[in-house]
Amino acid sequence: MSKKRQQIAAAAERVLYREGFAQVGVDRIVDEADVALGTLYKHFPGKEDVIVAALAHREETFLERMEEPEGEGGIDAVLRLFDRLLDWGDEKGGNGCLFLRAAADYPEPGPVREAAVAHKQTYLALIERRLRHAGWEKAESKRLALRIFVLLEGAVSAVFALGRETAIAEAKETARLLLLACPPRG
Amino acid sequence: MSKKRQQIAAAAERVLYREGFAQVGVDRIVDEADVALGTLYKHFPGKEDVIVAALAHREETFLERMEEPEGEGGIDAVLRLFDRLLDWGDEKGGNGCLFLRAAADYPEPGPVREAAVAHKQTYLALIERRLRHAGWEKAESKRLALRIFVLLEGAVSAVFALGRETAIAEAKETARLLLLACPPRG
DNA sequence: GCCAAAATGAAACGATCGTTCTATTTTCTC
DNA sequence: GAGAAAATAGAACGATCGTTTCATTTTGGC
Questions:
Q1: Residues (43-102, chain B) with CB within 7 Å of strand D atoms
Q2: Per-residue pLDDT tens over the stretch A3-47
Q3: Please, are residues A7 and A35 in contact by the beta-carbon 8 Å criterion?
Q4: Mean pLDDT of chain A
Q5: A61 close to A141: Cβ distance less than 8 angstroms
Q6: Cα A79–A59–A172 angle (5° rounding)?
Q7: Distance from residue A52's CA to nucleotide C13's C1', rounded to whole Å
Q8: Which of A75, B5, B54, B138 is in the most buried spot, having the most CB atoms within 10 Å?
């Protein structure tokens, strides 16, 4: 992977998330990337491919961010997902989920939508793995992962109305009640 | 309020929600509204004003849909919000929250963003009122409303990954556990 | 230091989009 | 039914945007 290509993908991720898919043109991306327009078109066939690369870049950094360095098990290992999300939001700002926004702006089937679907499935699998590692059985993990996922998605969406800290804190507390009501090895 | 104006606002709401703010131009709106282009510009100063009217139209129908015809109190009165959301999604499709998408596509301050903020505050107030009517005290209602709000927002967002029925059912079940864990008159 | 490959800056294209304008037709009111 | 107001169809405008091209400069490997 070329250095310039990475630059463009990272810059596109930043500016697309900050200003929205509608208002951002190719010229803004090359400005943010400190790169000539021709360079972008030597690395990408078109704008949509830049967007796909931006989503791939975001998926990568997101998974890095959500990864646990070391984990003692139990409920706290699951609840720490919300803390990671809070850190993630601190860097990236609170403008919702980039993948959902991309899917909304590209309603017809295509690589953008596929990237969004793949991201959500990876996310769900990550939650489920965390639950299993924390002590829940497979069937319980599958069910609980759906609810934790709803709470995490709700936290991100609610940032707009409630602010980052409140939205994530309330989601986390609800998750704690949920997990206490459905303890492992039940 | 003129008949044509209402037509345009309703059509804009439909097509904007279905296809996204980015891909929809004024010509698509007038096609969907069965109205001439000049008529649109005789009723609205510009496209952004059409969008604001579309959001206002959606707010109106949304509040109608969420309103209870008659309500026995208790937990079920609150949980019925999720059923209403399911009905709402059945008509409107599962492309996320139109207000959040509008806010994401119009990042700078302005009437679009204001409409989105106002909608979320109205929504929160509706939830809180429902909780009070169901028996919770004022302080508890305020706190619980935040969490129910997160769950409702999460349900809408999770539709993309989980499908309408699953997303809303899991959110509703989580809400039930939350409300059982924090009963009224605690 | 040389040479190929990559990057740059800038201009220019076709297409699309928001907006305006005009001439004609329909609708509504008295 | 006459006259005013609104709606229509369609053309045309300037601006923006995605994309292509080109001549020039910079970079990196032998």
A1: 43
A2: 999 999 999 999 999 999 989 999 999 999 999 999 999 999 999
A3: yes
A4: 94
A5: no
A6: 15
A7: 26
A8: B54
- What lies within 8 Å, CB to CB, of A90 at 6+ separation is A164
Q: Which two tokens stand for residue A62?
A: 């997101």
DSSP B31-79: HHHT--HHHHHHH-SSHHHHHHHHHHHHHHHHHHHHS-SS---SHHHHH
Q: Is B120 on the interface with A (CB under 8 A)?
A: yes
The residue among A105, A80, A102, A79 whose CA lies nearest residue A13 is A102
Provide the residue type at B20 as one letter.
G
Query: Does B71 have pLDDT greater than 80?
Result: no
Percent of chain B scoring above 90 in pLDDT: 88
